[in-house]
Specification:
The protein is α/β, with parallel strands linked by helices and 306 residues long. It folds into 2 domains: 259 residues, Rossmann fold (3-Layer(aba) Sandwich); 39 residues, no CATH class. The longest helix is centred in the first third of the chain and has 23 residues.
Length: 306
C-alpha cells in the first residue's frame, strides 16, 4: 500500500498536510503537553505503580534519614540545605524500560472534519501521556534513537524538548519507522503511527528491534476518512512524499478496492507483529485518546508479566 493521502478540495485539509517542522512543533507542543497530562490523569486512577526503593542505578528521590540506618547512605550535599538529614534513594532494580516512538512523517499531519485532532497530534498526545503514566508507575521511558531511558517527574516536558531540538536540525527528515536497532531484553517498545509504509519495511524494523527478546506494541492511528473513504465525484488524490497526483471522475468507484487493500495492508502488519510476539491495535482520531491509552497501559502490564 502506498503512502497516498486522501484529499478533497478543502483548503484547510490541504494545509493540514504540511510537514510538522520545528516551529510548528514548538508552537503546538504546549497544548499537546496539557492534553497528554489530562489524558494520563484519566487512566491513572486505580493503577498501582511498581516503583519502590532499592539498589538500582537511577536516582529516584530524597527521603529523610531514619535513625539506625548506615550513615554512609546520607546525602550530605542535600542535607546541608536543610535542618535534617536526607538519604538518596534509587529506583528498584526491577523497573523496566519502555521505548516510545511517535511517527512525525508528513502523512501524519492529515486531519479531516470528522476527526477530533490530526494524526500527529493524537500520536504525540498518546506518546507523552503514556510516558507520564509509566514514569508515575515506576518505569523508565525513552525515545529510540533520540534519548536514553530515564525516569523523572517532568518526563513529558523532557521528551517534548528533545523532539523539538531534533526537529530544529537543518538535516532533520521525519522518519516513517523507528531505528531498526535491537532493544535490550526485558524492555518493551510502543510504536504509534499510521503505518502507511511498505509492510516489508515495518516487518524488518520489528524483527530488528525484537531480535534480543524485547516485546512491542503497534498502534495504528487513522483518521475516520481513511477508514470509510467517503469520496464521491471528481476528486484529486496526492502522495505526500512525492509530486504524484491522481485525478478521478468517480471516486466512489474506488471505495471497495480501497477498503479491501486497507484490510490486506493491516493484516500484513498484524502478522508481522504476531510473528515476534508483539501486539497490534487500531485507533481512530474521532475517538477519545484515553481509550487507546488505557488499552496500551494494559498491554504493557501484560508484557511485563509475560
Amino acid at each position: 500500500m502506498t503512502q497516498v493521502e486522501l484529499l478533497d478540495r478543502d483548503a484547510a485539509e490541504r494545509e493540514a498536510l504540511r510537514p510538522l517542522g520545528a516551529l510548528d512543533l514548538a508552537r503546538r507542543l504546549p497544548g499537546l503537553i496539557v492534553s497528554a497530562k489530562e489524558v494520563a490523569a484519566t487512566v491513572m486512577h486505580g493503577m498501582h505503580g511498581r516503583r519502590r526503593a532499592g539498589t538500582g542505578e537511577t536516582f529516584w528521590q530524597f527521603r529523610p534519614f531514619t535513625f539506625g540506618e548506615p550513615s554512609a547512605r546520607i546525602d550530605w550535599r542535600r542535607s546541608a540545605r536543610d535542618d535534617r538529614l536526607y538519604v538518596r534513594e534509587r529506583e528498584w532494580e526491577a523497573a523496566h524500560s519502555v521505548w516510545i516512538w511517535a511517527d512525525r512523517s508528513p502523512s501524519m499531519a492529515y486531519v479531516s472534519g470528522l476527526a477530533l485532532q490530526s494524526k500527529i497530534d493524537r500520536a504525540l498526545v498518546l506518546a507523552l501521556a503514556l510516558a507520564d503514566c509509566l514514569v508515575r508507575g515506576g518505569e523508565r521511558v525513552g525515545i529510540p534513537g533520540l534519548t536514553r531511558a530515564f525516569a523523572t517527574r517532568d518526563i513529558v516536558e523532557r521528551l517534548a524538548e528533545r523532539m523539538t531540538q531534533e526537529a530544529s536540525r537543518t538535516d532533520y527528515v521525519p522518519a516513517e519507522v523507528p531505528p531498526a536497532e535491537a532493544l535490550a531484553p526485558r524492555t518493551q517498545a510502543v510504536i504509534i503511527s499510521d503505518f502507511l509504509s511498505d509492510p516489508a519495511i515495518i516487518a524488518a524494523t520489528i524483527k530488528a528491534m525484537a531480535s534480543r527478546g524485547a516485546r512491542g506494541h503497534l498502534v495504528m492511528v487513522n483518521d475516520p476518512v481513511e477508514e470509510t473513504f467517503p469520496f464521491n465525484g471528481h476528486m484529486e488524490f496526492r502522495d505526500v512524499d512525492s509530486p504524484a497526483r491522481l485525478r478521478v471522475g468517480e471516486a466512489q468507484s474506488f471505495r471497495a478496492i480501497y477498503v479491501k487493500r486497507l484490510a490486506e495492508h493491516r493484516e500484513r502488519l498484524r502478522d508481522a507483529a504476531r510473528s515476534r510476539g508483539w501486539t497490534f491495535a487500531m485507533h481512530r482520531t474521532d475517538r477519545p485518546a484515553s481509550e487507546a491509552l488505557l488499552s496500551l497501559r494494559m498491554q504493557l502490564e501484560a508484557g511485563q508479566g509475560g
